Amino acid sequence: MSVKDCGKHSHCHRRKLYRRVFFTLLTFIILILLIILIIYLVLRPKKPRFILSSATIYSFNLSSPLSPPSLLTSSIQVTLSSHNPNDNIGIRYDKLDVYASYKSQQITLPTSLPPTYQGHNDVNVWSPFIYGSSVPLAPYLSVALAQDENAGVALIHVMIDGRLRWKVGSWTSGHYHVHVSCPTLLSFSGGRGDVKLLQMSACTVDV
């Protein structure tokens, strides 16, 4: 019984070469993934924190719910702040839209905030206007809002939807969706058209 001498054939050399290249690439890929994992575990990006500190309501008028469709006209200036809690990671806000919602229905047009970069532990403050003119409400929502007005207090949410990227040195990540919800308690202290924000609101943030 003879043993085949593979070393004299070119296809055996190619096979050995392919095997070496494969294991070299595999080792390189595993090394890169390990480095990425170590960087992630060391840096651990924390999502930004948002606070709604004030709201100035210039108008908040609901037409009679007894004659549908009920229309809501509102104009509100809100002051929002964002804090980047990371020591080594910057945040690029590429797109942020602010609007108000009532019982999960959007009641104002979205207002876009300018793209901005937030450095390590930095705080950014925005004071956009959000407004809606004759926005139709579903019948059950108009009844609920009218009841809240009569009770003197209404809960709305100032919402932020957008995209952000993490930045470490010269490296920048891909886009992540950010969704912010700021519950806002409004007081109808002097009847319709006289509305104020009752308290500062901490916001929930999903990234």
Task: Describe the overall structure.
With 207 residues, the protein is an alpha+beta fold. Helices cover 23% and strands 48% of the residues. The chain contains two helices and 14 strands; from the N terminus they run αββββββββαββββββ. Strands 3, 4, 5, 6, 9, 10, 11, 12 and 14 form a nine-stranded antiparallel sheet that branches. Strands 1, 2, 7, 8 and 13 form a five-stranded antiparallel sheet that branches. Strand 1 (49-62) and strand 2 (70-83) form a beta hairpin. The longest helix is centred in the first third of the chain and has 34 residues, at 10-43. It is elongated and about 90 Å long. One of its GO terms (cellular component) is plasmodesma. Keywords: Membrane, Transmembrane, Transmembrane helix. It is found in: Membrane.
Taking the sheet with the most strands, its summary is: 9 strands, antiparallel
Number of helices: 2
Give Rg in angstroms: 28 Å
Beta-strand content: over 45%
- Tell me, briefly, the overall form: elongated
Domain Late embryogenesis abundant protein LEA-2 subgroup: 79-182
Subcellular location: Membrane
Keywords: Membrane, Transmembrane, Transmembrane helix
Main location: membrane
